[in-house]
Structure to design on (315 residues):
């Protein structure tokens, strides 16, 4: 989510009421005890607000936040450097934490549990391990695949919160709040059009809003209706189900190129020239949700609903 469109307080955060209410309690209790917030794991689909919540937690605690993405971390040194920059009560946020390799993950065990790390120091004559104490801090982990998180790491999070699917009404409210920040007036019907193709995901909805806003700037419009929203969504390749060109390529591949016989994920990855993680999280998750494909022991296949759709689409 664009930093300028992120909520500035829990009161501005739309949806996830149970999660927000729980966080308010845990934060208030930590402040009353004058201790760091317990390590917190946020679980949810991409784009549902996990990073925004991490920033809001830091703001409510009035603490610094250091942000890392596990997909970009190969060396434990990256974790150690981040930990060394923390002051008491600060927050280390690791997005996609399930993607950490074992050596990086193991650095966190003693850091989370007893607030220290072991440093391997080498000199000309010997190698020694030095214990480096850390101030009490909070690790916030975000994951889209909690089942891939190792049990030793998962067990060290005493707070674990799962984000639910948003409603279309909540997405419309998120979009409406964003329009007040960007200074363009949108009819509610236009916002409903965007919400209807957003896969009920705030990040996707806000990205579409920004693209429509780009076109409205070029067209010198200050007032956006549903017809204009539909026109621009079509122009950027989003259809009325929220499917994009890559989704359609995926469906056509299963039906036309492989005669709807089961296809393995590696084959799909090679055919589409996309990495497996992108296919699983950004394409298949939604196609399964709307009942267009299913996973079998032999591979992916279209459902009857998916076959009907792609046939009608190609007519």
């Amino acid at each position: 989510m664009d930093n300028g469109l992120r909520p500035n307080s829990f009161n501005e955060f739309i949806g996830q009421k149970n999660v927000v209410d729980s966080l308010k309690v845990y934060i208030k209790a930590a402040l009353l005890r004058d201790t760091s917030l317990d390590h917190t794991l946020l679980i949810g689909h991409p784009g549902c607000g996990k990073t925004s919540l991490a920033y809001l937690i830091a703001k409510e605690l009035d603490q610094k936040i250091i942000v890392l993405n596990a997909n970009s971390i190969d060396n434990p040194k990256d974790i150690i450097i981040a930990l060394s920059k923390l002051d008491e009560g600060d927050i280390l946020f690791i997005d996609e934490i399930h993607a950490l390799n074992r050596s990086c993950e193991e650095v966190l065990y003693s850091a989370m549990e007893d607030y220290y790390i072991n440093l391997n120091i080498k000199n000309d004559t010997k190698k020694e391990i030095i214990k480096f104490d850390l101030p009490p801090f909070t690790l916030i982990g975000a994951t889209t695949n909690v089942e891939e998180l190792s049990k030793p790491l998962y067990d060290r999070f005493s707070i674990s919160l799962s984000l639910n699917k948003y409603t279309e009404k909540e997405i419309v409210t998120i979009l409406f709040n964003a329009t007040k920040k960007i200074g363009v007036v949108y009819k509610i019907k236009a916002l409903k059009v965007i919400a209807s193709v957003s896969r009920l995901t705030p990040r996707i909805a806000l990205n579409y809003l920004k693209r429509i806003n780009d076109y409205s700037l070029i067209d010198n419009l200050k007032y956006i209706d549903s017809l204009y929203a539909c026109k621009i969504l079509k122009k950027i390749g989003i259809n009325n189900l929220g499917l994009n060109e890559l989704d359609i390529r995926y469906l056509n591949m299963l039906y036309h190129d492989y005669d709807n016989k089961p296809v393995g994920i590696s084959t799909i990855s090679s055919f589409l020239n996309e990495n497996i993680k992108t296919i699983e999280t950004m394409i298949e998750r939604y196609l399964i949700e709307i009942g267009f494909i299913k996973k079998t022991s032999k591979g992916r296949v279209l459902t009857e609903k998916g076959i009907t759709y792609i046939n009608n689409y190609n007519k």
